[in-house]
Write a structure and sequence with these properties.
- This protein is α/β, with parallel strands linked by helices and 232 residues long.
- The protein has two domains: 157 residues, Vaccinia Virus protein VP39 (Rossmann fold, 3-Layer(aba) Sandwich), CATH 3.40.50; 50 residues.
- The chain has a seven-stranded mixed beta sheet, with helices on both faces.
- The protein is elongated.
- Bound molecules: S-adenosylmethionine.
Length: 232
């Protein structure tokens, strides 16, 4: 079994070995990979829906790692007892679902050492929520897979100075570290925003959305300048 670039990148952001739960595991590819290739002391794969839970059970059985991966049926972090694992992965879901999973079992989430999040959408509002709810962003990465960009956000409990909301939309650690894909990602985003501006501004040049996107594009130019100064 070969991990996709997205799943491989998630694994690269874990601090291994660790005790870990993969929430919303579906196929259980990451837990199986960890069972076969690392010394993780505990590996839990969980899903709240019966079909993916059955798929995870079956894949774990086929990979012959039943003794290493504990597959559980249940919602979010509620499958865990207090301090059962150090790390959680919550990947391949919308930002709003991720927020809900963390918010529903907030005390358990605050008891984890690190949470590796990979939202399929809404990364900006997820970051804002995390920072407003005592989570600190300690690492981030972009990964390109199947012609799409995916964001990965690693958080730990703790306070973080509330950053500029534009930086939270883009990813403060992506900028600080000068992620190698950030420049291309920003170019794509700008192209998307310019298209929206063009579509709306034909009839409504002063529409608040047009003004907001133009201001965000100005801020983006500043970020791009910083990135180009890293590479000089
Ligand atoms: C698109 S799959 C992602 C699978 C895998 N994590 C990945 O990134 O490739 C999303 C999975 O999350 C599960 N899921 C959605 N909400 C959940 C929740 N609150 N608790 C546990 N699992 C959830 C779904 O049943 C589904 O199997």
């Amino acid at each position: 079994m070969k991990l996709s670039p997205r799943l491989k990148k998630i694994v690269s952001l874990l601090e291994l070995p660790t005790s870990i739960v993969d929430i919303g595991t579906d196929h259980a590819y990451i837990p199986i990979h960890l069972a076969k290739n690392t010394n993780c002391s505990k590996i839990i794969a969980s899903d709240c829906n019966r079909a993916p839970y059955q798929a995870a059970l079956e894949h774990v059985r086929q990979a012959d790692v039943e003794d290493k991966v504990d597959v559980r049926l249940g919602c979010g972090l509620s499958v865990l007892s207090k301090s059962e694992v150090q790390t959680a992965i919550i990947a391949g879901m919308g930002g709003q679902t991720i927020r809900q999973i963390i918010g529903d079992d907030y005390d358990l989430a605050q008891g984890l050492d690190r949470i590796v999040l990979q939202p399929m959408a809404g990364a900006g509002s997820l970051r804002k929520w995390l920072v407003n709810n005592n989570f600190k962003i300690i690492n981030e990465a972009l990964v390109a897979d199947n012609d799409k960009f995916y964001q990965i956000i690693v958080v730990t409990p703790g306070s973080m100075k509330l950053e500029d909301s534009f930086l939270l939309e883009i990813g403060p650690q992506l900028i600080e570290k000068g992620d190698p894909l950030l420049s291309t990602y920003l170019d794509n985003l700008e192209e998307k925003w310019q298209k929206i501006i063009k579509d709306i501004a034909v009839e409504l040049p002063d529409h608040p959305k047009v003004i907001n996107l133009k201001s965000k594009i100005d801020k983006m130019q500043e970020v791009k300048k910083c990135l180009s100064s890293y590479t000089k």
